[in-house]
Every structure is written in C-alpha cells, then in structure tokens.
Design goal:
heterodimer; A: alpha+beta; Pnp Oxidase, Chain A; UbiD C-terminal domain-like; ten-stranded antiparallel sheet; five-stranded mixed sheet; globular; B: three-stranded antiparallel sheet; 1 helix; 7% helix; extended
C-alpha cells in the first residue's frame, strides 16, 4: 500500500498489488472475492442457457464471469465470460479492478519488455493437469459439458482452447512451439475439427508435416490460467515463445508447464483443467462450420482439418471454460484488445518514437486509433503507412484514425472530438484500393482483398499551413489531485 | 433419421448423456453436422448443404504437394 500526500494535507491510499494466478481455479476465486463472478446453482440446459448467459454478461458494464454448477445430465461445471470485462481484465493482470483501459495498456506495455522469462518445467507428479488420465474409450462428452454456442453453429465448439504444436523441422527448438487459439468443432466422441487459417503459425507447421505425408502432433488445452489464454490470442513473432511471455506478463514470475505424455517436444500449461493430446490427421479436410465468429457473423462451411484425440489428462471435476462470441463486444473482444494494441505500439515506436499509444481493439485491429506527436507536416500519414505495413496491420487493419499526442486513443469521446474538429475530408481522408484484407470481414470482396481508409485527425504542423490556428483550453492547475480526491470520497 | 442439413441417411449416435437418459448426440457422417436429441434444428437455407456445395468448398489450409 502506498500513500500519496496531497498538498491540502489529505492522504490518499494507492492500492497496488501483483497477484499471480497459476491456474483458472485460483483466478475464479479472486473474481468471486472481488464481486466479479456469479454462481448459478440451479440446473441449466446446455442450449441455449450457457450462451445466453454469456451474451447477457457481455452486455453489462464490468460483467462478471458466470459459473454453472450443474448443466443438465452432464457431470462437470462450466464457466463463461471469465475475461469479459475491464474489471476482470485488470484482475487478470493483478491490478485493481478499477484500473482504466489506458492504465492497463501502459502496464501491459511495461511488462512486455520483461520478455523472455524462462518457464518452470514441473515434474509429472507436480502438474495438476495430470491428476486423471484416459487412454482408451475416450469420450469428450464425459469430461466436458459441451454445448452449441450460436444456433446456426455446425455443432459443439471449443471457443477458448489454447492449442500447442511444434515445428516438425525443429522439434527441439522450444521457442518454435506455438500456443495459439483456434476454433475446434466436436465431430465425434474422440475426433474434432480445427480451423487453421493459412497465415497462422499452426498452418506453417502443418504444411511441413503434410508435405512429408505425416500428421502434426497437437495438444488442446482447456481451462488455463488467464494469462496463458491471453497469450494464446496474441500475435507474436514465430520465434517468440508464448510461455516466456506469460512469465513476463506475470511480472517476472515464470509460467509453470509440463511435458505432454505422448509427445516429447510439446509442453502444456501444468495446471490447466483438461489436455486433449492427439494428431492433426495428415492431408485430410472435411466439412467444418458454420461458426459464429468475432466480426459478429457466421463464417460459412469450409473443408478444414481434423484431429484424432489419442489421450486425455484432466483435473478432478474439470471445469469447462468456454466463451460466447457475438456482435461486439463480447468476451472474445477482451482477448484481442490490449494484446493486439501493445505489439502494434511496439512496432510503430521502434521507428517512430513520437507515437504515444495505439488502440487496436476494434474487431481485432480492423479499426485502429493511434495517438502521435507530429514532428513535421504529413507525419500522421506516415504513421498510418507504418501501421498498415506491420505483419498484423497488413491483413487486418482497414480503418486508421490518427490523433494528436494529447488525445487519448482509448477515450472515444476524445477521438470523436478530434474527428469532428480536426478533419478536413478533402485533404485528411484517403482511400487506398486493392490492399490485403481480412477474409472474416464481410465487407472484404473478394475475401482477402480490401481498401484501406486513413483519417488524419491531427492538427496541421509546418510545413503544412494552419490558417485557422487556435489556442486550446488547458485544464486548471491541480485537476489531477482533485480527481484522486473525488474518487476516494466516492468509495 | 436423416441429416437436417444435407439429407444424408448415415447418422451416428456419438454420445449419450453422461447422467440419466436425458439426451443423445447425433452426427451426420457426410457433412459432420451434429445435434442433440433435445434440439429442433432450424437450419437457414443459406447453410443447407448438398454434394455440389461440398465439392465447391474452399480448402483451408491448402494441402501441400507431397515431397518426393
């Protein structure tokens, strides 16, 4: 606890703690203690209750996680909306639940630089995910309380799995292990489909295996500690390790992992609820989908990969953690918000130190707002070009808004102020046709191609003329102190 | 029983409710649509499937040529 003495003699308490969550269960306890988890004790139907509650919790400001103790005729509990609010997101980081989005952005950005933090490899006996094992007659329905999420989905989907694969060409290179999140459709009691889009790391690894006529070993993990799930949804370089980032984001406390049972080169989070070990079947594609996707609409059916599950390990009474996704914002948006923004910020900042912050939270960065100081006339357009040529920006980013350094890109009222007072469309709005686009964006046609839109909402700087130069209103002296005082009086 | 999505007649019961006799889970062995016995699938026209549609589907990711 720190104390900040105000000049008027009032002491203001600054609560600061870093709590590390090594598994989902300890995080759920923290959420419950902080009033951010509700428990449903009555029996619910798998459809439509679990998804309906997920939608409802996402509609609420600071919506809680929803824990279902009993799902009709299933054995095990379900939890949804675990990451689905800024309060829960702050608690994931071990911050106060009232921390603002911008505060969380800067804290995440600071911890990012602690990379790499070597994970701790536990013995099999120490890993809670190995409490139980199933090697034959695998039936996913016995272990997981599976349900359909959106009514036109092609079946029961896993929407929050952290999926581990390795590079067949470099099986001993730990950093090339990929931990990613991909949708998984349950097709049989021990066989599932997976969507591995060509530009994702898992597809790079799969291509190498399939070119040799081999399958790709895979571990599907469910019910992870919240930062592992967060990192699985984070775009990082191919040679970077998600596990080493988990340690960084835990403020230097190493992630705890354990070797998979079937595959020497693969490591799974040591205390997750369920591990499904198996193999992507080589050179096989079957009908998969539809599935309600993050842009708020169904993707159609495609011919996608299948996985044969060969072994399951799990904690006793495993909790099935799954997320609802619908028209934004729902839980999935929180898993693509600051972890898309911080890597983009770092990339821009390398060449352009004037960049202050990046808000790439809208539909996985398809809409992005960047705050920057403009060093010379036209600088904002340069920042936009740089953003649109980053590895993530190229396929995803479509609408780019650049604002001045004193505008908070996470404060949409300020952003709208900038657009309404600092944009002369004839010079500040540019459309660039025939660029890469995101196929899941329904306005991309043909799918994968798009136009880019740049809105320069910055104040003109020399040598651009500024014939209507104005004097901005500055906040009165002492306003930060007053904000802290008023907040503390409202508690 | 036929598939509510593609009309195929090879349907497998892939699971029964772990507790009690509350439901069964069915899966079409052609288009892999699955549904619970307690559901009444109402599949939109645009998502209905037939052989022509399946044959025209995009393959994701592409299957690479086999190395010699």
């Amino acid at each position: 606890m720190g104390r900040l003495a105000g000049t008027c003699g009032i002491q203001i308490n600054v609560r600061r703690f870093t709590m590390v969550h090594h598994d989902l269960r300890s995080f759920l306890k923290v959420l419950e203690d902080e009033g951010q988890l509700v428990r449903i004790k009555e029996e619910v139907n798998p459809e439509p209750d679990i998804a309906a509650a997920g939608r409802a919790a996402a509609n609420m400001k600071n919506g809680p996680a929803v824990y279902f103790e009993k799902v009709k005729s299933y054995k095990n509990p379900v939890v949804t909306n675990v990451h689905g609010s800024w309060a829960n997101h702050a608690l994931m980081m071990g911050m106060d639940k009232t921390a603002s989005t911008k505060e969380q952005f800067h804290e995440l950005n600071r911890r990012w630089d602690l990379y790499p933090v070597e994970p701790k490899v536990l013995s099999r006996a120490e890993a809670k995910c190995k409490e139980n094992e199933i090697t034959e007659n695998i039936n996913l329905f016995d272990i997981l309380s599976l349900y359909r999420i959106n009514d036109q989905d092609g079946g029961c989907f896993l929407s929050k799995a952290s999926i581990i694969t390795g590079d067949p060409e470099y099986p001993d290179d730990f950093d090339k292990i990929n931990v990613g999140t991909y949708r998984v459709q349950v097709k049989d009691k021990d066989r599932v489909g997976i969507q591995a889009l060509a530009f994702h790391d898992i597809a790079v690894q799969l291509e190498k295996a399939e070119a040799e006529g081999k399958g790709l070993p895979i571990c599907i993990t469910l019910g992870n500690d919240p930062l592992t799930t967060f990192m699985a949804s984070t775009p990082i370089a191919y040679n970077q390790s998600e596990y080493k980032f988990v340690g960084a984001l835990n403020n230097g406390v190493p992630a705890e992992i354990v070797k998979s049972d079937l595959y020497e080169h693969l490591y799974v989070p040591a205390h997750c609820e369920v591990v499904l070990e198996g193999e992507i079947i080589s050179r096989r594609r079957t009908v998969e989908g539809p599935f309600g996707e993050f842009p708020g609409s169904y993707s159609g059916c495609r011919l996608q990969c299948e996985i044969q599950i060969k072994k399951v390990t799990h904690r006793t009474n495993p909790i099935f953690e799954n997320l609802y996704l619908g028209i934004p914002w729902t839980e999935i948006d929180f898993l693509m918000a600051l972890n898309t923004s911080v890597p983009q910020y770092k990339m821009l900042k390398e060449a352009m130190p004037e960049v202050q912050a990046v808000n790439a939270m809208y539909t996985h960065g398809i809409g992005t707002i960047v705050s920057t100081r403009c060093r010379y006339g036209g600088y904002a357009k340069g920042v936009a070009f740089r953003l649109l040529s980053t590895p993530h920006g190229m396929p995803y980013t479509k609408v780019v808004i650049i604002v001045d350094e004193f505008v908070d890109p996470f404060n949409l009222e300020q952003v709208m102020w900038a657009i309404t007072t600092r944009v002369k469309p004839s010079k500040d709005v540019v459309v660039i046709p025939n660029c890469p686009g995101m196929p899941l964006d329904p306005s991309s046609n043909p799918a994968g191609m798009h136009d880019k839109l740049i809105i320069d909402a910055t104040t003109p700087v020399s040598p651009e003329p500024n014939p209507r130069e104005i004097q901005l209103l500055t906040p009165p002296v002492g306003h930060e102190k007053w904000e802290e005082l008023i907040r503390s009086l409202m508690k | 029983m036929t598939c509510p999505r593609c009309n195929h007649d090879d349907i497998k019961t892939i699971a029964k409710s772990p507790e009690g006799d509350a439901w069964e889970m069915y899966a079409c062995q052609k288009c892999w649509y699955s549904w619970r016995s307690t559901e009444t699938p109402q599949i939109l026209d645009k998502f209905m499937l037939d052989d022509a549609k399946i044959a025209a589907m995009q393959i994701i990711p592409p299957v690479p040529p086999l190395k010699k």
